[in-house]
Amino acid sequence: KSKGTKVFALTGKIRNSGLIEVPMGIPLRQIIYDIGGGIENNKAFKAVQTGGPSGGCIPANLLDINVDFESLASVGSIVGSGGMVVLDENDCMVNIAKFFLQFTQSESCGKCVPCRIGTKRLLEILERITSGNGRDGDIELLEDLANDVKATSLCGLGQTAPNPILSTIRYFREEFEAHITKKKCPAGVCKDLLSYMVLAEFCKGCGACKRVCPAGAISGEKKEPHKIDPDICVKCGACFEACKFKAIGKG
Question: pLDDT tens digit string along 73-89?
Answer without folding.
Answer: 999 999 999 999 999 99
